Amino acid sequence: PAALVAAIAVAAGGNALVLSRGGGFVEVAKVMLLADVAYLVVSVALSLWPRLSGRERVRYLAAVLLVPGPALGLAMWMAASGGGRSVSGAVIGSGAATVVWCALILAGWRHAGWRQAWRSSKHKSQPMNGQ
To answer: How many angstroms from the chain centroid is the CA of residue 8?
Structure first.
């Protein structure tokens, strides 16, 4: 609940501020990004962070910062080049984004232990209510 309240407060206050000053979609998107970051920081700080060792914290931060990097870089490049303004540009951009995400999934599967986690008995679904 605390993370959700923080995110709502950031979103509501920030959106009210930018809209009252004549801001548009871009400014609202920036505020929503800050609200999402607030939600992530508070939820991780209250749930996951205290249980991680120093090395696990570094790995978690690296994943949070590096995994979205290629997709965000591609989106920024497309926005700057105007590539998404035509049908062909949108198709090419969608294909490129799909390739980037597939590459990230493959890297996680091969190098981040996802394969072992998938096969581990800890991660197999258990029947509900003993059924």
So the answer is: 18
3-state SS of 99-120 is HHHHHHHHHHHHHCCHHHHHHC
Euclidean distance between CA atoms 56 and 79, whole angstroms:
35
Question: To which H or E segment does residue 35 belong?
Answer: helix 25-43
pTM confidence score: 0.55
Q: Over the stretch 62-92, which tens digit does the pLDDT of each residue have?
A: 888 877 777 777 777 777 776 556 777 767 7
Amino acid type, 125: S
Are 46 and 3 in contact by the 8 Å Cβ rule? The answer is: yes
* Residue pair 84/78 in contact by the 8 Å Cβ criterion: yes
Sign of the four-CA dihedral 64, 67, 68, 69? positive
Predicted confidence (pLDDT) per residue in 98-129, tens digit: 887 788 778 777 777 767 777 775 545 555 55
Angle in degrees, 0-180, between the axes of helices 25-43 and 2-20, rounded to the nearest 10:
160
